[in-house]
């Protein structure tokens, strides 16, 4: 196990009707709030009204910024920075999923920075000060509600990049599983795939003696696997929705990273796909992850066999561990397919003519991944495995 320092500053408020507390939580940071949301579904189901009522009852003036898209855009981030500065917002309230939260985090990072906010994403700047962020989560998936990560797409060249900073963690996050009852099932399964990918990025490590976090990763994966079939049959099953919502936060708040080094090549490869084709992040990960596994599993067959046995319940073949490892990879792919995810580019209706471009962008700053270091040639081969 490697040395580590772990701290999570985000306060989680979990449970029924908790969105009604957003005003009191936000008022601790000032009296002017920038409210950010997406396409307007929060208005359709009444969440917008409940949040706005809570903020106003707590004495906050509210400035609004809607229109956040999946794979959120840099142009809206810059618009939000200007709006925050003009209106002197004391706190940003993100009501939505990962795209809305990441937009809020990027705006928060850019308000006090004199340069281009994209500098944080290219490694030219380090976050020193930000506007506080509060979250009302609507889509369990990205785990952005309590993570250090922020991912934004730059329309100039269609680069999708992220940056990490402990300062990026929201001050508080409200998680009410009831809010997710009305989620389209496709968004639900995209979210589940994203969560599983976050865990697997951490699980496949070359660091030894990490039994505790191995077991924790396996437990969260199994919890997701056990509960998503229930949700697909009973969308308003509170218990199953609650398990998945909490799993999404645990998957990406870095608790499962403690003492180990994750891989993250699959995420970086997928970012190039969703930047160009605007596919849902979870769907892109369902295509890439099994292909990545098939390409790298021989680096540590025993770990992949353990994944097959502990997560998927496969029988371990003492005479042929490689067979067990491959069965686990195939089981993951079939699970993604069963819940409605594409597992090939063909199934997602994505052409094969830009693999070289995606691989070049992915490895522009050098090889990616830690489990196995991958250069441009490797990335092209993985993309071809996912045809």
Give a nutshell description of this structure.
The chain is built from 15 helices and eight strands. The chain is α/β, with parallel strands linked by helices.
Question: Can you offer a commentary on this structure?
Answer:
The chain has 387 residues and is α/β, with parallel strands linked by helices. It has two domains: 11-176, Rossmann fold (3-Layer(aba) Sandwich); 185-385, Dehydroquinate synthase-like, alpha domain, CATH 1.20.1090.10. It is 48% helix and 11% strand. It contains 15 helices and eight strands. It has helices at 22-27, 41-44, 47-57, 74-87, 98-110, 118-122, 185-203, 211-233, 238-252, 265-277, 281-296, 301-312, 321-338, 355-362, 376-385; strands spanning 11-14, 32-36, 61-65, 91-96, 133-137, 149-154, 159-164, 172-175. A six-stranded parallel sheet has the order 1-8-5-4-2-3, with helices on both faces. Strands 6-7 form a two-stranded antiparallel ribbon. A hairpin with a 4-residue loop joins strand 6 and strand 7 (159-164). It is globular.
Could you give the order of strands across the largest sheet? Answer: 1-8-5-4-2-3
Instruction: Figure out the total of helices.
Output: 15
- Please trace the helix and strand order, writing H or E for each element: EHEHHEHEHHEEEEHHHHHHHHH
Distance linking N and C termini = 37 Å
Taking Cα atoms only, what radius of gyration do you get, to the nearest Å?
Answer: 20 Å
Q: What class would the helix/strand composition place it in?
A: alpha/beta
């Amino acid at each position: 196990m490697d040395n580590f320092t772990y701290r999570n500053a985000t306060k989680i408020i979990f449970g029924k009707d908790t969105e009604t507390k957003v005003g009191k939580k936000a008022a601790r940071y000032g009296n002017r709030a920038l409210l950010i949301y997406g396409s307007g579904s929060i208005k359709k189901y009444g969440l917008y009204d409940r949040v706005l009522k809570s903020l106003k009852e707590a004495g906050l003036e509210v400035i609004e910024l809607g229109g956040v898209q999946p794979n959120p855009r840099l142009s809206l981030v810059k618009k939000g920075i200007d709006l925050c500065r003009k209106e002197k917002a004391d706190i940003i309230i993100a009501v939505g999923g990962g795209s809305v939260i990441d937009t809020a985090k990027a705006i928060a990072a850019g308000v006090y920075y004199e340069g281009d906010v994209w500098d944080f994403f290219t490694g030219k700047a380090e976050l020193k000060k930000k506007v506080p962020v509060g979250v009302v989560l609507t889509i369990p998936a990205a785990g952005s509600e309590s993570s250090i990560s922020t991912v934004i797409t730059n329309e100039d060249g269609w680069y999708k990049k992220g940056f990490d900073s402990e300062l990026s963690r929201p001050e508080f996050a409200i998680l009410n599983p009831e809010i997710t009852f009305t989620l389209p099932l496709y968004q639900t399964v995209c979210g589940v795939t994203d969560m599983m990918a976050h865990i697997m990025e951490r699980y496949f490590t070359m660091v030894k003696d990490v039994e505790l976090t191995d077991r924790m990763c396996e437990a969260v994966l199994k919890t997701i696997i056990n509960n998503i079939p229930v949700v697909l049959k009973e969308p308003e099953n509170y218990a199953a929705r609650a398990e998945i919502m909490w799993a999404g936060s645990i998957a990406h708040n870095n608790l499962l990273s403690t003492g180990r080094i994750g891989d993250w090549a699959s995420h970086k490869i997928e970012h190039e796909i969703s930047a160009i084709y605007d596919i849902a992040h979870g769907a892109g990960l369902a295509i890439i992850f099994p292909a990545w596994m098939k390409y790298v599993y021989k680096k540590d067959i025993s770990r992949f066999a353990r994944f097959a046995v502990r997560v998927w319940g496969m029988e371990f073949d003492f005479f042929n561990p490689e067979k067990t490892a491959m069965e686990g990879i195939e089981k993951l792919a079939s699970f993604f397919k069963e819940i409605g995810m594409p597992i090939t580019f063909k199934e997602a209706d994505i052409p094969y003519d830009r693999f070289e471009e995606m691989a070049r962008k992915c490895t522009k700053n050098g090889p990616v991944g830690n489990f196995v270091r991958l250069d441009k040639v490797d990335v092209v081969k993985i993309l071809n495995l996912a045809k």
